[in-house]
Design a protein that fits this description.
binds 6-O-phosphono-beta-D-fructofuranose; six-stranded parallel beta sheet; ten-stranded mixed beta sheet; 16 helices; alpha/beta; globular
Length: 468
Amino acid sequence: MARLIIVSNRVAVPAEGKDAVSAGGLAVAVKEAFSAYEGLWFGWSGNIRDNPSPEPELIDRGPIQYAVLDLSPQDHREYYAGFANRALWPIMHYRIGLGTFSRSDYAGYQRVNQTFAQALAKLVEPDDLIWVHDYHLLPLASELRGQGIANPIGYFHHIPWPAADVFNTLPASGELLRAMADYDLIGLQTDSDVQNLSRNFIDTMRAIPLGGGSMMVDGRRTRIRAFPIGIDVASFKDAADKAGSNKVVRETMAGLRTRKLLIGVDRLDYSKGVPERMEAVDRFFASNPDQRGNVVYIQITPKSRSEVPEYEQLSREVNEKVGDINGMLGEPAWTPIQYVTKAYPRPVLAGLYRAARVGLVTPMRDGMNLVAKEYIVAQSEEDPGVLVLSKFAGAARQLPEALLVNPYDRFEVAEAIRQALYMPRGERLERWKPMAERMLREDVDWWARNFMAELETFRTVEREPPTT
Ligand code: F6P
């Protein structure tokens, strides 16, 4: 069996005695990619330690081997919290004003990519395929090539690629683009991401388009293509079908009584549009006063990246907004917004999605958004709910039958909530069915198989030995 090496910042090492990876977004995707290969998953251990070893810890769990490195506090600050999450993340999400570029953070980002490449190069065998994930590792292929690695290397970008002019505001943009040309295959979520990155390649590096997404850059061929990521439909649907017996789901439904449920589930991130969504819900109750007391909005928002100041600021902003809206509108017997920052397991979320009449997925910008897909898959044919979806989420391309909204317009989102709540079953079914069928066809297995089939074609490409 051929070997696949997956590289990502976070690595989901299963507990001892288990050989299956846990069921989170990237973990599910990686598990699927490994199904046809022997696997090695390489990345950060999740630990921060003084003087970390440059040699990865090797962990064997069934068919997958793990190789993980610790980060020093400085690495973590500069590479992860700094350059990846204060410079790349906001710019990729069109938030130029939130971007903070620091030369020392960028140096840390390059240093960690180099350390990863040096450690990984020692583990690579000649027939291995390498698949790198996420914006933390844009220069990894270039560093690996510098270490003499000639294997096919693919990259998947889970978040949006912005318009070329937006990306070019980043002081390191040219250098990063040049490094990315060392990937054989670059996968993005949507065709418009592909157009944006291709434009960047053509303008900045005088890349020559060869048709079909292939480009010639400095005498090397690279391919840029859309591979919209999917979800594990069978297991999610099964979880939703069985969720009635789950304690949290049962208690939540009992608490609702006859009230209709609006649900939002997002990592606490400014790209997800949580405060803007709350304002839209507030607007909805202002223009539909008869619905006060009849509708409850549950927002589940696990905290993330709290070490990054913009996320701490957002956390305070959301707390304040929830307090204001509940204080102004609530009654002793009715709390309009139930806001929780705990992370719930997938079976609980599946059950809550099934119970919710409306799924609110209104990011200001999102690479794909798997919550939108999970909400659709969790619905039942007997009584499907309605998805209100931002047109700036990559998922909108595959879910055009949802109520598509502009998340910057709270009046439009409030109106979509009203429309969703009053929509007759016939129309709900008509909208939901084609989306559910598409989710089944274009699932996570379809995504991983397509990417790997394309990466396989680079096995035969002859590469010049590196000049360094
Ligand atoms: O969406 C991009 C992404 O890196 C995902 O791959 C990951 O699951 C998510 O963001 C969480 O980010 P972090 O690792 O910073 O908590």
